[in-house]
Amino acid sequence: MKAMVVQLGRIGDLILLTPMFEVLKEQYSAEVTLLVGPSNYSIIKGHPAVDKVIVLDKAPHKLTPTMVQLLIKRFDVWLDPRDHFSTEGRLLAKIGRAKMKIGFNPQSKKSVFTHNISNENRYLHQVQVGLNALQPLGYELSNEIPRPTLPVNSNSEQKIEEFIGNQENKFTLLNISASKDDKMWHEDLWVKFINTQSKQIGELVICHAPNHTGMANSIVSKLVGNVKVYCSPEISDIVSLIKRAELLISPDTSLVHIAAAFNIPVLALYSGLDDFYTKFCPLSEIQISVRADKGDTGLKSITLDSLNEAFTEMLKKLSK
C-alpha cells in the first residue's frame, strides 16, 4: 500500500504523528510518503517508518515542481489527519491522486475526502487523533496512548556529546523558550526558581531559541551559580540534548513531546485551557504538569510557589 500523509503544521504535531507512521508501516506494510512544511520536516528526517519526505515550500520556483509531483504520483490512500477544517488541506487533497482520501469534510462544504474524519475528539490525545484517522483502514483505537518515536542526527549527537562531556543523564535541562510570548514564563521568576532550587537542581543546562538570547543572558547574569547555556537553530541538536537529560523543565510542548520519545522525565508548564491539555499533555512515564489558572491561554498566572512545589514532588518521583 502506498500512503501519503499530510502534516504541514507545527513540529509538535508532526512528532505526535509518528505512532501513526509506525502503524502504517507495521500493520499495513505501507510505503509512507510524508508531505510537510519547510519549518518542521527536519525533526522526522531519517525516521525508519517514513520512506519519502516531500517538502511543500510555497516559494513560486519550488511550489510548481512539488505540485507536479503530487499530480503525477498515485497513492492508495491519502491521509490528512487534521480533525478540523483546512483550506490548504482540501486543495492538496483535490490535487493528490488516491483511491481513498481520508480527512475532515465540513458540513458546509462539498466533500473532498472519500472517508470523513470526525471532529468529536475532545477527549483524545493528539496521538490518538492521528491514529483515529486510520479507522477507514480497519484500525481500532485502544485506550493505551503510544509514545512518539524520533530519529537522531549523527552530527548533532557528536556535537552534544562534546558539549555535555561526562554529565550525560546527570543534568537538568531547563528550556525557557516557547513559540509565543504568552506561552513563556516570567524571566524574574525563572531567576528566583533557579536560585532557590540550585542545590536540588544540581548540574543545570539552560537552552533557548536564537531569538531569546537576550532573555537567556539576562537570566544567567542574575544566577548565583554557574550554568551551561545551549542555543541552536537546529532541532536535531535539541533532540540530542533532551535525550541525555535527567529531567526536562519546559513551557514548550514540542520539547515535551521530544522528551516523550526517549521517556525523559518532564516538568511541564501548561496553559489553563483544558481541551489543549487533554490533546497535548506529556506522555513520559514520569511527568508533572503545572497548570495556569483555568481559562488562562498563557502561563502568566503560574506562580513561583506552584513550580517550586511541583519540582519538590518531581524530586521525590526521581528518587524512587
In short:
The protein has helices at residues 11-15, 18-28, 60-72, 87-95, 126-132, 154-164, 187-196, 198-201, 213-221, 235-242, 253-261, 274-280, 304-319; strands at 2-7, 31-36, 52-55, 74-79, 97-103, 115-116, 171-175, 203-208, 228-231, 247-250, 266-270, 287-291. The chain has 320 residues and is of the alpha/beta class.
Description:
The chain is α/β, with parallel strands linked by helices. The protein folds into two domains: 2-137, Rossmann fold; 154-319, Rossmann fold, CATH 3.40.50.2000. The chain has 13 helices and twelve strands. It has helices at 11-15, 18-28, 60-72, 87-95, 126-132, 154-164, 187-196, 198-201, 213-221, 235-242, 253-261, 274-280, 304-319, and strands at residues 2-7, 31-36, 52-55, 74-79, 97-103, 115-116, 171-175, 203-208, 228-231, 247-250, 266-270, 287-291. The strands form two sheets. A six-stranded parallel beta sheet has the order 3-2-1-4-5-6, with helices on both faces. A six-stranded parallel beta sheet has the order 9-8-7-10-11-12, with helices on both faces. The mean pLDDT is 93.
